[in-house]
Specification:
Radius of gyration: 18 Å
Strand order of the largest sheet: 5-4-1-6-7-8
Shape: globular
Order of helices and strands: EEHHHHEHEHEHEHEHEH
Mean pLDDT: 91
Oligomer: single chain
Largest sheet: 6 strands, parallel
């Protein structure tokens, strides 16, 4: 598990926040008398907020500006990210360990910087990230490898030396196709559903096993280095 660079998605991977976005989607559509569908939720899960808003306007024929929809979504989610969103099990411990080992870490996310920084800071892990490749410095969502490639570039590492942690099938497929080692982070009870995660190199439910394995490997290398 020791790679030269670690790249983490945030929503649903490091941050336990997917429930927030589901509730936002359901409430947003409900206000307009529209039903939420899992197909819609999956379709926008890997998109930048701007593209998701444009997609929503087109799909439902809304007479609204995408910029207004984005603002409404952000306002609805801000309190949750600032006050309630927590972390996936052992996410903090893993990031702290990587920081202590001097291994660089990047976030690769389509989430709004306005939101994710609130949650990272409140949970005490903002300082463990060396770089942020996000919607503000990438033109496309995760149907393109741009966000992942930029993250590796920011860390100064080659693709083959980095591991990416992701939770959505499209993003996993994109990162794998670009040449990264990819770990799929599954919802609890779905780690064995290989059909969802396709080409991922491994599937985990949280970071417990990754943390413990990395800790063992790091300790082993330290012991051998002394001798």
């Amino acid at each position: 598990m020791i790679y030269k660079g670690y790249i983490f998605d945030l929503d649903g991977t490091v941050l336990d926040s997917m429930g927030v976005w589901h509730n936002v989607d359901v409430e947003f559509l409900g206000k307009r008398g529209l039903p939420f569908s899992e197909k819609y939720g999956k379709a926008i899960s890997h998109m930048k907020l701007e593209l998701a808003a444009e997609y929503t306007v087109e799909l439902y024929g809304l007479n609204e500006k995408p910029s207004d929809i984005m603002r409404e979504w952000l306002d609805m989610a801000e309190y949750e990210f600032k006050c309630r969103v927590g972390l996936k099990p052992f996410a903090k411990e893993l990031l702290e360990l990587l920081h202590g080992l001097g291994i660089p870490v990047a976030a690769a996310t389509t989430s709004s910087r306005r939101l994710y920084r609130l949650a990272l800071e409140r949970n005490g892990i903002l300082g463990y990230f060396d770089a942020f490749s996000d919607a503000e410095n990438a033109e496309r969502g995760k149907d393109s490898p741009e966000i992942f490639l930029r993250a590796a570039e920011m860390l100064g590492k080659e693709i083959k030396d980095c591991i990416v942690f992701e939770d959505t099938p499209q993003a996993i497929k994109t990162a794998k196709k670009a040449g990264f080692t990819v770990a799929a982070v599954a919802e609890k009870g779905k780690a064995d559903d290989s059909g969802i995660f396709g080409s991922a190199d491994m599937v985990i439910e949280d970071f417990t096993g990754v943390f413990k394995e990395l800790e063992r490997e790091a300790e082993c290398k330290k012991i051998f280095a002394v001798h």
